């Protein structure tokens, strides 16, 4: 492709509204342009990268036995109402009406649509398993779209759905897709970790997220420094044995703590460590108020609480509700003397001896608080966020934290959707049973942004060979010089005939401008035709390493192939 004709509107300055590297570089390299908050046009360079990523995804999906199809973008509300997600998705669901005032949604995901197809198409276990996928634009009305392609309202996703007659068949498909995803993200050049995750609004139980490691990642990964254990911090179990101190119990005493409300303030006011304070939260679960207790230096993981109680949502009490239920302001509540409320505590609370808690009275706290003697706990559970330095849940090593960008996720949905939508088959005994489902997603456009987050330097993007928009960049340093122009034209033809995808910078620009644009665009190999053109010599630069090689024209193709092979390994 001749760069003179290519739409690649590069920018010299960093756009003011671009906060992260991938967003900045995609704008500066002329890859994307925003037309509304969270909505982007993909310009030719970006489109070529997307095609490369999509090709890798298709190859691995096809190899895993999945079949490609295309489903509608517009979904009738009735399908989403069958599963209850029309209401549960809330404001994130892009809704619209047709001319007949019928409700539709722009698909953020396709569980309902694919389930409706299968319930009308398959009625016997003999036709299973089947795995179907598509690559399509999705829509979610993000409250705060940001970070370019990492959190947009319109994005490209590969979603796949498998259907099974037995849990064992689903397990096999899950493993196949897990392995396929590992190959996909390896091939596109990402450093990633598969982590245990929460299924969220999708539903189901077992699930793993594939996280590309990056400082700008919106998710925190808890991983072991001595094993393969990794989990989203929301799902990381705590494997800590709490031991009670062997000290004498003291009397429970009410003390004046004045304006001290927060854990920090109470700790300072009473000169005690935060781990001696019992943090008390008032939470509404279904229609019942519940007290949730944690150690003062720990934070509640509400995802764990939801799973422990098998509920989809919980609500923390407003300040006025705390006053109404416990007759005390937030910051002064505690479990001592409370009747009629269920009390759930994190395991760490059981080991607190002579602790501190709110006294359910303004400006007052109790000291010398002990579980069982002064208050009762109805249920203990793992309710807190894991912390760096905790023992790894698998018993191997210590937990460390890293930031990650979610680029893919695999779910075992089970029968969540098939039961709700009455999608059934006859099993081998002639009995009716719901289809068993799996769901598997890759954020294609998000993957492109994640690649740039991991592959860049101060001068621009550094594309991995597998997804670069072009194989190499051919530059004529002085387009007015006849020898340089003639040799460049000859090389452009020869390189294309040799099978290389070439971006040829034939623009009448200064050499410095071309070098800067070339570094910004970040193709793996640059071939510069300059002052030694008459001698049949050109300069080859490796973008990743900065290595520069002077090469005779006769050896150029072999040199490029050798360097490509090095970069691919």
From TrEMBL:
It is an enzyme of class 6 (ligase). The keyword Nucleotide-binding applies. InterPro entries: aa-tRNA-synt_IIb, aa-tRNA-synth_II, aa-tRNA-synth_II/BPL/LPL, Anticodon-bd, Anticodon-bd_dom_sf, Pro-tRNA-ligase_IIa, Pro-tRNA-synth_IIa_bac-type, Pro-tRNA-Synthase_IIa_type1. Keywords: Aminoacyl-tRNA synthetase, ATP-binding, Cytoplasm, Ligase, Nucleotide-binding, Protein biosynthesis. Homodimer. Its main location: cytoplasm. It catalyses: tRNA(Pro) + L-proline + ATP = L-prolyl-tRNA(Pro) + AMP + diphosphate. The keyword Repressor does not apply. It is found in: Cytoplasm. Catalyzes the attachment of proline to tRNA(Pro) in a two-step reaction: proline is first activated by ATP to form Pro-AMP and then transferred to the acceptor end of tRNA(Pro). As ProRS can inadvertently accommodate and process non-cognate amino acids such as alanine and cysteine, to avoid such errors it has two additional distinct editing activities against alanine. One activity is designated as 'pretransfer' editing and involves the tRNA(Pro)-independent hydrolysis of activated Ala-AMP. Consists of three domains: the N-terminal catalytic domain, the editing domain and the C-terminal anticodon-binding domain. Gene3D superfamilies: Anticodon-binding domain, Bira Bifunctional Protein, Domain 2. GO terms for molecular function: proline-tRNA ligase activity. Residues 38-464 form the Aminoacyl-transfer RNA synthetases class-II family profile domain. Belongs to the class-II aminoacyl-tRNA synthetase family. ProS type 1 subfamily. SUPFAM superfamilies: Class II aaRS ABD-related (SSF52954), Class II aaRS and biotin synthetases (SSF55681), YbaK/ProRS associated domain (SSF55826). This is Proline--tRNA ligase.
């Amino acid at each position: 492709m001749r760069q003179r004709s290519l739409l690649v509107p590069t920018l010299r300055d960093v756009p003011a509204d671009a906060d992260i590297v991938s967003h900045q570089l995609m704008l500066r390299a002329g890859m994307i342009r925003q037309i509304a908050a969270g909505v982007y046009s993909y310009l030719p360079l970006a489109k070529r990268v997307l095609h490369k990523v999509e090709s890798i995804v298709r190859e691995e999906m096809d190899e895993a036995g999945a079949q490609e199809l295309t489903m509608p973008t517009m979904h009738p509300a009735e399908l989403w109402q069958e599963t209850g997600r029309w209401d549960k998705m809330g404001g994130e669901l892009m809704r619209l009406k047709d001319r007949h005032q019928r409700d539709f949604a722009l698909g953020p995901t396709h569980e309902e649509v694919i389930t409706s197809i299968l319930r009308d198409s398959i009625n016997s276990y003999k036709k299973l398993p089947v795995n179907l996928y598509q690559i399509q634009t999705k829509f979610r009305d993000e409250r705060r779209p940001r970070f370019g392609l990492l959190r947009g309202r319109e994005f490209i996703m590969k979603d796949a759905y498998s259907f099974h007659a037995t849990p064992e068949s689903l397990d096999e498909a899950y493993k196949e897709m897990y392995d396929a995803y590992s190959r996909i993200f390896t091939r596109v050049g990402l450093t990633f970790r598969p982590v245990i995750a929460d299924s969220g609004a999708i539903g189901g139980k077992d699930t793993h997220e594939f996280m590309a490691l990056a400082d700008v990642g919106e998710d925190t990964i808890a991983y072991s420094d001595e094993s393969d254990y990794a989990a989203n911090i929301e799902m990381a179990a705590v494997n800590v044995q709490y031991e009670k101190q062997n000290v004498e119990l003291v009397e429970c005493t009410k003390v004046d703590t004045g304006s001290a409300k927060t854990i920090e303030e109470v700790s300072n006011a009473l000169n005690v460590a935060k781990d001696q304070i019992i943090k008390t939260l008032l939470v509404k679960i279904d229609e019942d108020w519940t007290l949730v207790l944690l150690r003062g230096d720990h934070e509640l993981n509400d995802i764990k609480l939801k799973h422990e109680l098998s509920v989809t949502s919980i609500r923390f009490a407003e300040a006025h509700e705390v006053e109404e239920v416990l007759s005390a302001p937030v910051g002064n509540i505690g479990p001592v003397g409370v009747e009629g409320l269920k009390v759930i505590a994190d395991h760490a609370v059981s080991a607190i001896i002579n602790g501190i808690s709110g006294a359910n009275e303004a400006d007052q706290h109790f000291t010398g608080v002990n579980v069982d003697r002064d208050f009762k706990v109805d249920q203990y559970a793992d309710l807190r966020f894991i912390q760096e330095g905790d023992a790894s849940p698998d018993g191997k090593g210590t937990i460390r934290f890293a930031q990650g960008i979610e680029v893919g996720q695999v779910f075992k949905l089970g029968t969540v959707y098939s039961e709700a939508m009455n999608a059934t088959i006859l099993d081998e005994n002639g009995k009716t049973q719901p289809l068993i489902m799996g769901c598997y997603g890759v954020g294609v456009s998000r993957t492109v942004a994640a690649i740039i987050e991991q592959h860049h330097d101060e001068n621009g993007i550094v594309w991995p060979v597998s997804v670069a928009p072009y194989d190499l960049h051919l530059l004529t340093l002085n387009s007015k010089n006849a020898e340089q122009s003639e040799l460049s034209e000859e090389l452009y033809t020869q390189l294309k005939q040799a099978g290389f995808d070439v971006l040829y910078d034939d623009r009448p620009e200064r050499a410095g401008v071309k070098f800067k644009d070339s570094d910004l665009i970040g193709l793996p190999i640059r071939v510069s035709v300059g002052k030694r053109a008459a001698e049949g010599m050109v300069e080859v630069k490796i973008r990743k390493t900065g290595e520069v090689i002077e090469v005779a024209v006769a050896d150029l193709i072999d040199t490029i192939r050798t360097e490509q092979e090095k970069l691919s390994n």
